[in-house]
Design a protein that fits this description.
With about 200 residues, the protein is mainly α. The protein is about 55% helix and about 0% strand.
């Protein structure tokens, strides 16, 4: 029996070249991963210093060129966040001012503000204001949470009666004391007669 290149002879008929080629391709395909793995695992024994220097230079250049745009990007993001917060705050202020403006469109609210802020009254009303020199704005009774060790005060009706029945000593002793405590305008002095 004669054998052809790498294949046994079957009944004396030589094998077709296409079949032999397919078998070789199959063997190469099965051996390809082993060859690739050997090439991949085997590193060059010695690295050229020039290649190493060029690779380092490329990495440094890329780092420098990317660093500035990245820094600008993060700064702009922070600036946008600040501006968004400022816009939200201004929108809240705008809404508050719009609501206040809408309240002033109501006549009842305007009348109430005129009464409380300016002390104005409607035509036909009488205004009364009780002013006592014994009441001070910093009295402990007027501040909530003030010291509780102050002596007991008499009832309100007793205080009211005492305020109108007991005269003020300063007003009794000095007739020049203004009883009403209202501001007055000084009268201008009469012009002096010319001397002859």
């Amino acid at each position: 029996m004669t054998e052809t290149k790498g294949a046994p002879n079957r009944g004396g008929i030589p094998r077709a070249r296409s079949v032999e080629r397919q078998e070789r391709l199959r063997e190469r395909a099965q051996a390809a991963p082993k060859r690739a793995a050997r090439r991949f695992v085997q590193l060059p024994q010695q690295i050229n210093p020039m290649v190493l220097a060029v690779a380092a230079a490329v990495v440094i250049i890329l780092g420098v060129t990317i660093a500035q745009p990245l820094r600008n990007y993060f700064e702009q993001r922070a600036e946008l966040a600040e501006l968004d917060a400022k816009i939200a705050q201004q929108e809240q202020e705008r809404d508050r001012l719009t609501a206040e403006l809408n309240r002033y469109q109501n006549d009842d609210y305007v009348r109430e503000q005129a009464r409380t802020r300016l002390g104005l009254i409607e035509p036909g009303e009488s205004a009364f204001r009780i002013i006592s020199p014994n009441i001070s704005a910093t009295a402990p009774e007027s501040t909530p949470g003030a010291d509780e060790t102050t002596p007991e005060r008499s009832a309100w009706y007793q205080q009211l009666w005492d305020s109108i029945s007991i005269p003020d000593e300063a007003a009794l002793g000095d007739p020049s004391v203004d009883q009403h405590h209202l501001p007055t305008v000084e009268e201008p002095a009469a012009p002096a007669a010319p001397a002859q």
